[in-house]
Recover the amino acids of this structure.
């Protein structure tokens, strides 16, 4: 009689709660690659290669540590296709008296885990995911008495709790947040350090073969494949970022440059989200670099805020608000996702570049996701359901707990301002300031109306007009609505006509 310990594809950490107190002689670890998880949305092919290869390598590590592992590959003939049916098969073939699992990252998965106890007549224990710095319960305790759930205040609490960048009880530098120093555009001449390249071993090559055979109708390119798939290589990536890129992370956090998909970003989200790296080790590594004088405070604080601020905060919001959060649509947006998000075909160079890089890399950095891909969808009123599905498919770091609040809350304002105090809507001038995309665009960013004009320029005003009922009482938008009200009537008409023409031509 032993315990079945189920490990999911994003739970690849040796310190996982479901591995604690494991009896290596009696307990069975179950890991399964299943078609249901690969296709409930049609994940990017590179994401599938990453997930399956990292799972296979993690199972190998566990076996080397003498755990008793039952691993089912996608192509195995006895693979039953879903996690639930795989658990059933494991119970049938082994003497199992209990199931232990760490809480999953998606509500959908939690629902079916909760059905196992009744279905199989075996006790199921769901343990907390202790890899996060704030538990779901503690986030709820923080949120319950508050009217507004701003990330900044949550972040300060976590900094204090873990004593990160603190001196006595004050933040180092006497300020919690150095974001105002983190908005520099980037000059093409800056010599950006290259990412590490990892050689593909036989495990990854086998996975590439399976994915390219079975999922070739999914979006995205497998090659070049340069992601780490083991903890060892993920740790190398973290070290490389801390040594070579952290120093400028803050300065260029919001910058975008053609054919430079990563710039000074860490490129660590895949590893954090599947468990190869732990958030606290990334935070401590950055903090150490600050104390050793290797990186300035604006960079280190900015990086740490993304991890113990935004990352923990969006997870808290997700679990606080699910399952209703998924259906929220405050602006009642219902446009179909334009085909350019799949085929890259558009004359708008910023969108073309960001979709192309997403297709090649299963990665885009934050400002590309927010201010180009997201901003455009917000302005044209893409339905939250369609946009969420796209974001969940195309990025190798996407799991619903982190994707949904970013898309519905931060980008589409679908939660009516729970996460963001105002929509991140912007005209072309922001993209022009922060990137070199406009130089190679068919449209002119300086032109506001007419066939040559950058579509972001008129769509921005059109968005505000169309959503006036819902947004004009937002204090942070008062000045903008007042500028619109003062606008010449001919200009208002041109905005409406240009927007109608543009939107009706969108495929
Ligand atoms: P860096 O810029 O180097 O940041 C360091 C780390 O901070 C990241 O690795 C990530 O773990 C964390 N982080 C930064 N911003 C956020 C954020 N807003 N929310 C949560 N964590 C954050 N991130 C995901 O991990 N998965 C997603 O599916 C995802 N979808 C997004 C969708 C949209 C529309 C937007 C605007 C953002 C999304 N993000 C998502 C957040 C962010 O864009 C990515 O975490 C980041 O681009 C990953 O690249 P990086 O590792 O180089 O990040
Ligand atoms: C994303 C993903 C994929 C593609 N495949 C698997 C799989 O075959 N087996 C598995 O255990 N997990 C997989 N995952 C991750 C899950 O779909 C799900 O997103 C997370 O487990 C939620 O925490
Ligand atoms: Fe994008 Fe407008 Fe610039 Fe073209 S001109 S790249 S559409 S912001």
């Amino acid at each position: 009689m032993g315990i079945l310990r189920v490990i999911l594809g994003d739970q690849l950490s040796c310190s996982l709660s479901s591995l604690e107190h494991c009896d290596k002689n009696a307990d069975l670890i179950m890991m399964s690659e299943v078609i249901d998880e690969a296709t409930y949305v049609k994940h990017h092919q590179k994401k599938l290669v990453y997930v399956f290869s990292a799972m296979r390598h993690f199972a190998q590590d566990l076996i080397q540590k003498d755990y008793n592992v039952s691993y089912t590959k996608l192509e195995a003939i006895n693979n039953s296709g879903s996690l639930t049916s795989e658990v059933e098969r494991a119970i049938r073939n082994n003497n199992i008296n209990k199931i232990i699992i760490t809480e999953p990252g998606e509500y959908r998965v939690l629902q079916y885990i909760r059905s196992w106890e009744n279905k199989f007549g075996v006790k199921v224990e769901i343990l907390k995911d202790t890899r996060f710095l704030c538990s779901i319960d503690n986030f709820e305790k923080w949120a319950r008495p508050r009217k507004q759930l701003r990330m900044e205040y949550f972040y300060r609490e976590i900094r204090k709790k873990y004593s990160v960048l603190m001196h006595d009880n004050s933040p180092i530098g006497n300020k919690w947040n150095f974001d105002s120093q983190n908005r520099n555009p980037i000059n093409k001449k800056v010599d950006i350090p290259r990412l590490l390249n990892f050689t593909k071993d036989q495990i990854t090559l086998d996975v590439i073969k399976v994915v390219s055979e079975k999922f070739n109708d999914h979006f995205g390119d497998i090659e070049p494949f340069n992601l780490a798939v083991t903890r060892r290589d993920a740790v190398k990536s973290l070290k490389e970022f801390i040594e070579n890129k952290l120093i400028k992370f803050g300065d260029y956090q919001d910058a975008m440059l053609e054919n430079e998909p990563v710039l000074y970003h860490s490129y660590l989200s895949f590893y954090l989200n599947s468990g190869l790296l732990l958030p606290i080790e990334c935070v401590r590594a950055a903090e150490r670099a600050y104390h050793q004088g290797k990186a300035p405070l604006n960079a280190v604080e900015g990086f740490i805020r993304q991890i113990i601020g935004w990352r923990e905060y969006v997870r808290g919001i997700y679990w606080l608000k699910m399952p209703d959060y998924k259906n929220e649509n405050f602006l009642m947006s219902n446009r179909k996702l334009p085909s350019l998000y799949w085929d890259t075909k558009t004359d708008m160079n910023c969108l073309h570049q960001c979709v192309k890089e997403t297709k090649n890399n299963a990665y885009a950095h934050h400002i590309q996701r927010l201010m180009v891909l997201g901003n455009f969808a917000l302005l044209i009123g893409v339905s939250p359901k369609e946009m969420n599905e796209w974001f969940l498919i195309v990025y190798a770091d996407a799991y619903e707990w982190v994707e949904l609040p970013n898309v519905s809350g931060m980008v589409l304002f679908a939660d009516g301002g729970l996460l963001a105090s105002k929509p991140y809507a912007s005209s072309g001038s922001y993209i022009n300031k922060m990137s070199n995309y406009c130089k190679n665009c068919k449209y002119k960013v300086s032109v506001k109306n007419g066939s040559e004009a950058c579509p972001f320029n008129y769509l921005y005003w059109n968005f505000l007009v169309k959503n006036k009922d819902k947004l004009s009482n937002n204090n942070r938008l008062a000045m903008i609505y007042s500028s619109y009200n003062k606008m010449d009537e001919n200009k208002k008409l041109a905005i409406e006509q240009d927007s109608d023409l543009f939107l009706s031509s969108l495929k």
Notes: The chain has a mean pLDDT of 96. The CA atoms of residues 40 and 225 lie 23 Å apart.
